[in-house]
Write a structure and sequence with these properties.
309 residues; alpha+beta; 3 domains; 8 helices; 4 strands
Length: 309
C-alpha cells in the first residue's frame, strides 16, 4: 500500500467522515430549533386584541379635566374682575375731569371729590389717587379678586393692560346622523346605556344617537365589549357626572382599539416573516443532513469496496 493510499484511508476518510457527522448534527439541531420556533410563532399570527378600559383610568382622566376646567373658570373670573376694575377706572377719570372743569387751577382731587362728581364706588374695587394735581394726575384701580392694578395718568393712558386670552377652540359638533344597529343584543345594550342617564337631566334621544354612531364606527369584535364596559363605568359614578365619564371612556376605548389594531398588524407581519426564516432553517437542515448523509453513504461504499479488493 502506497503512502498516498495510507493517507487517504487513515487520515482523509476520517476527516471527511467526522466532518460529515458534525455538519449533519448541526443540520439536525437546525431542524429541531426551527421547528420549535415555527410552532411557537403561531401565537403571533393570532395576537390578543382584547381592550380593557378600567374605571380608575376613566376617573383619573375626568378628575384631570375637571381640575383644568376649574382653573379655566377661575382665570375667566379673574379676567372679568380685572375688566370691572378698568371700568371703574374709566369712571374715576371722567369724574376727575368733571372735578377739574369746575375747580380753579391748583386744585387737588380726592376720592371724596370723585364720588361727588359721579364715581359710584364698589366695595370690591379699590380706587386710589397717588397724585391728585391736574398736571401729574394718576389714578389707580384694582379689583380685590383680580390680579392686575390699572393706572390712568394725566395724558389719558392706561398702563398694565393685559391682552385678552384667545377664545377656546370650538368643539366640533357631534353628528346626529343615526345608523340602524341590526343586532338585537347590541340594541339592548345601547338602551341599557341610555337608561343610565336620568330622564330630564340628559337628552336621552341625543345620547342614544351618539352611542349608536360610536358603536357603528367600531369593529364588530369590539361593539359588545364597548357597551358592557361603558355600562359598568356609568354604574360606578354619580348621575350628574355620567356625561363626562361616558365621553372620556369612549375616547380612551377608541384609542386602545387603534393601538391594539396597529400592534396586531405589526405582530402578524413579523410572524409571517419569521415563518419564512424558520421554514428556511428547517429546509436547510434537511438538505444538510441529506447531503452529508449521502457523503457518509458514499464513504461507507468506498471503504467496503477497498476491503473487498
Amino acid at each position: 500500500m502506497s503512502f498516498a493510499d495510507k493517507m487517504e484511508k487513515k487520515v482523509f476518510f476520517k476527516i471527511v467522515r467526522w466532518f460529515a457527522f458534525f455538519v449533519s448534527f448541526i443540520g439536525f439541531l437546525s431542524i429541531i430549533i426551527g421547528a420549535f420556533l415555527f410552532i411557537q410563532n403561531f401565537s403571533n399570527i393570532f395576537p390578543s386584541s382584547k381592550v380593557k378600559v378600567e374605571f380608575s383610568d376613566v376617573q383619573s382622566v375626568v378628575q384631570e379635566k375637571e381640575t383644568a376646567e376649574k382653573a379655566a373658570i377661575e382665570a375667566a373670573n379673574i379676567e372679568a374682575n380685572n375688566n370691572i376694575a378698568r371700568a371703574f377706572l374709566n369712571q374715576a377719570y371722567a369724574a376727575a375731569a368733571s372735578f377739574f372743569s369746575k375747580q380753579p387751577m391748583g386744585s387737588v382731587v380726592s376720592l371724596e371729590a370723585l364720588k361727588a362728581n359721579g364715581l359710584n364706588m364698589d366695595d370690591n374695587v379699590e380706587i386710589s389717587i397717588p397724585v391728585g394735581e391736574v398736571n401729574g394726575l394718576k389714578i389707580t384701580a384694582k379689583h380685590k379678586k383680580g390680579n392686575k392694578t390699572y393706572s390712568w395718568d394725566a395724558s389719558g393712558y392706561i398702563s398694565e393692560l393685559v391682552p385678552d386670552a384667545p377664545p377656546p377652540p370650538a368643539t366640533a359638533p357631534v353628528s346626529s346622523k343615526k345608523e340602524d344597529v341590526k343586532d338585537n343584543k347590541i340594541e339592548g345594550l345601547i338602551n341599557e346605556v341610555v337608561n343610565q342617564f336620568p330622564q330630564g337631566t340628559y337628552d336621552r334621544q341625543k345620547i342614544k344617537e351618539v352611542i349608536q354612531e360610536t358603536t357603528n364606527e367600531l369593529n364588530e369584535s369590539y361593539k359588545i365589549q364597548f357597551l358592557k364596559d361603558l355600562i359598568d363605568v356609568l354604574k360606578k359614578v354619580p348621575a350628574d357626572s355620567r356625561g363626562k365619564y361616558a365621553a372620556n371612556f369612549t375616547e380612551m376605548f377608541q384609542k386602545q382599539v387603534i393601538e391594539r389594531t396597529t400592534n396586531k398588524e405589526i405582530k402578524q407581519f413579523t410572524a409571517l416573516k419569521n415563518f419564512a426564516i424558520y421554514g428556511g432553517t428547517i429546509v436547510g437542515g434537511i438538505l444538510i443532513i441529506a447531503l452529508f448523509g449521502l457523503v457518509l453513504v458514499l464513504l461507507a461504499i468506498e471503504r467496503n469496496t477497498r476491503k473487498n479488493e
